[in-house]
Amino acid sequence: MYRLHLTVLTLVLAALLSVGCTSGGHKKVAATEGKVIACSQCYDEAVQLRARSWKNGPDRVIRSHQCPDCGTGMTAYVEGGEAKIKCAKCAPEGVACDLCMPSSHGGM
């Protein structure tokens, strides 16, 4: 009988905790494999770069500036015919623009 009560109590607590985490005041961005969550300024830059075709051009830096959201340097560039951005906070390794997601993705 004790084991049954303990099992039921454990299940009820687990259910309450899982509901409490999902319905809290904070909202979490859903993780998506291979995607990078970028601040609004870096994401806007990525969208602008995606709108153009870079297939036939040489590798080059398109522009560099200080991102007002991140407070770090942001570089937009073309590498291998693909538009990419690099931001010390959002994408320190550099990321293809089509892999950027806005920070509001996932219900924020």
Would you kindly provide a written description of the structure presented here, covering whatever features stand out?
By secondary structure, the protein is α+β, with helices and mostly antiparallel strands. It has a domain of 75 residues. The chain has two helices and six strands. Strands 2-3-4-5 form a four-stranded antiparallel β-sheet, covered by helices on one side. A two-stranded parallel sheet has the order 1-6. The longest helix is centred in the first third of the chain and has 21 residues. The chain starts with a helix and ends in a 6-residue tail after the last strand. 20% of the residues are buried. About 15% of the residues have low confidence.
Labels describing this entry:
single chain; 108 residues; alpha+beta; four-stranded antiparallel sheet; two-stranded parallel sheet; 2 helices
- The percent range for helix content is 25-40%
Q: What sort of overall outline do the alpha carbons produce when their principal axes are compared?
A: elongated
Please identify the structural class as seen in this structure. alpha+beta
First-to-last CA distance: 45 Å
Query: What is the mean pLDDT?
Result: 72
The number of distinct β-strands equals 6
Count of separate DSSP helical elements: 2
Largest sheet composition: 4 strands, antiparallel
Strand content: 25-35%
- The strand order across the widest sheet is 2-3-4-5
Secondary-structure element series:
HEHEEEEE
